[in-house]
Design brief:
Elements (H helix, E strand, L loop, with lengths): L5 E3 L5 H11 L3 E2 L7 E5 L4 E5 L14 H8 L6 H6 L9 E4 L6 H8 L3 E6 L2 H16 L4 H4 L2 E5 L2 H6 L9 E4 L8 H6 L1 H10 L5 H11 L3 E7 L12 E4 L3 E7 H6 L1
Parallel strand pairs: 1-2, 1-3, 5-6, 5-8, 6-7, 8-9
Antiparallel strand pairs: 3-4, 9-11, 10-11
Length: about 260
């Protein structure tokens, strides 16, 4: 797959663009492309854009939905919080989000006090996350949350396998991107179609699940559509159902005694 280029639309930010290009091995171009997909660094943020009908895609931890989740998110009663074991927990777990994407679940968990490492293998998604994290670190309302979030640009299977015993997370969170067979849902998420087109599907989810189970101290949480198939291989220890989403839980102690 051809690398997604990076275009700097704001002359004053060319140094920031060069840093992003170097860090994530992105071709830095001088002119906005006539077609296709590209990353564009403007005055406010980095976006994935296209000449088609799709809207711009970006990661956001300060404004919009992120602000709503931060101010009225529901605390530990949220399904993702329950899934990772926050409800009633005295000690907050260290969580590795092994398929970070745009970092939305990572942000929720960090908002609730968890230390979170976002691991993302796509250079495009990783660049968008890095930009969002930098903006959050500069904002007074999110600076403390951003300080609990770390980004690793790596293949999660290899990254997890390379952890020393004292680096292992309590929880590994996995939200694999599968081909979208729900045409109605896909139509409602047109702004995300460009993101999925560029990022690609996670067709090695079974291998990632095995690596996550080997690395996690307490549990692995897999986020799936409510009616979606479980990842092939190990059977979940428990399932937490929601209205549109469910969480398959792989509890390490239960798996060890099975």
């Amino acid at each position: 797959m051809t690398a997604t280029p990076l275009y700097c639309a704001e002359a004053a930010r060319i140094d920031a663009a060069r840093l992003l290009a170097d860090r994530f091995q992105l071709p830095l171009i001088r002119q906005r492309p006539a077609d296709g997909y590209w990353l564009e660094l403007g005055a406010e943020r980095l976006e994935l854009v296209t000449t088609g009908k799709h809207g711009a895609v970006y990661a956001e931890f300060v404004e919009g939905v992120a602000r709503h989740r931060r101010e009225q998110g529901g605390g530990r009663g949220q399904p993702v919080a329950k899934a990772v074991g926050l409800k009633g927990a005295k000690d907050l777990p260290y969580v590795v989000d092994a398929t970070a994407g745009l970092g939305r679940d990572s942000f929720v968990l960090a908002t609730l006090g968890c230390r979170v490492t976002m691991v993302e293998r796509s250079p495009v998604a990783a660049a968008l996350l890095a930009d969002a994290l930098a903006r959050a670190a500069r904002d007074d309302s999110t600076r403390d949350i951003a300080a609990r979030m770390t980004l690793a640009h790596a293949n999660s299977r290899d990254w997890l396998a390379g952890l020393a015993d004292d680096q292992r997370p309590d929880v590994v969170f996995v939200d694999p991107m599968f081909p979208d067979t729900d045409k109605k849902a896909a139509a409602a998420k047109k702004d995300m179609q460009a993101f999925q087109q560029v990022i690609g599907d996670d067709m090695d989810s079974a291998e990632l699940l095995a690596a996550a189970i080997a690395a996690a101290k307490v549990r692995v949480v897999v986020k799936r559509p409510r009616l979606g198939a479980a990842i092939e291989g190990v059977k979940p220890s428990a399932v937490l159902d929601g209205k549109s989403t469910r969480f398959d839980l792989y509890v390490i102690k239960a798996l060890a005694s099975a």
